Write a sequence for this structure.
């Protein structure tokens, strides 16, 4: 809960200071992340009950690391191990 409890504060700072949102825009912009955080916490809770704490914590970590190695989550830049490309201007 420590990580997820602090997340709303940091999202508020991000929206207001970095993106220069007003209080109303921040509140509206926070709705989707708040729902996703709530759903993620509920799914994690159910997975921990069903599969056990160790499996629940290790499973997503292994999947995330595999995705990073293959470059699947790195968008247009490719793998994290790929050599940097020269930008064409």
């Amino acid at each position: 809960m420590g990580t997820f409890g602090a997340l709303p504060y940091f999202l508020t700072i991000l929206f207001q200071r970095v993106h220069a949102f007003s209080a109303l825009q921040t509140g509206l912009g926070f709705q989707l992340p708040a729902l996703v955080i709530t759903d993620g916490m509920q799914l994690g809770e159910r997975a921990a009950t069903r599969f056990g704490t160790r499996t629940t914590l290790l499973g997503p970590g292994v999947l995330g690391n595999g995705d990073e190695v293959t470059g699947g989550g790195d968008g247009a830049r490719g793998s994290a191990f790929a050599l940097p490309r020269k930008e064409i201007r």
